[in-house]
Amino acid sequence: SQPIEVQPAYYAVVQTPATVELAGTPIPMSGRAFVGPGENSDPAPEGSLVSIHISVRGTKRLISAIVNRNGDFSTTWNPLPNEAGLYDIGAAHPGDAEAPVQDTFSLLGMKFDPAVVNLTVKEQGTASGKVWLRNLSPEPLTGLTLEVTEKPANLELTAVLVDEVL
């Protein structure tokens, strides 16, 4: 008995015009599904489902798109509001567990660590605390500034940015 290699009924490729965007930005994706192993093959049948694999830092998500009569598809992926990083995307037949990386994009984002600082200030006293601003993407964040926009009238607040490159 010889092993039987099962090939997918069709193949797919995907790309995005996005390169570097802000966290929360919807990411348009488009591509083509085709029946042979080469992109110049006949289009996959109209209504075929394509799985788009989206990966960031070891987390993978799948979204789907449906091809038209020319084998083309398009969709928009909406990231979670505060997620960021370098993303890999690839398209494949829905029966394929993996897809090759066919394009990449970055979402810029940052977060405070810790997210909240609670300080107790006694009358005529002082208190201090530190927070770190964490870069969630592979792109350097430069030209950072720090500004106090709102504070109680009876407090004096001094904020210091140690480094302008994150």
Describe the structure in your own words:
This protein is mostly beta strands. It is 0% helix and 36% strand. The chain has no helices and ten strands. The strands form three sheets. A five-stranded mixed beta sheet has the order 2-8-7-4-5, with no helix packed on it. A hairpin with a 2-residue loop joins strand 4 and strand 5. It is elongated, with a radius of gyration of 24 Å. The mean pLDDT is 90.
Report strand %: 35-45%
Average pLDDT value?
90
Structural class: mainly beta
Structural Rg: 24 Å
Helix residue percentage: under 10%
Main beta sheet: strand number and arrangement? 5 strands, mixed
State the end-to-end distance: 59 Å
What's the helix-strand series?
Answer: EEEEEEEEEE
Give start-end ranges of low-pLDDT stretches.
Answer: none
Tally the helices.
0
Quantity of strands, as a count: 10
The side-by-side strand order for the widest beta sheet comes to 2-8-7-4-5
- Shape, principal axes of CA atoms: elongated
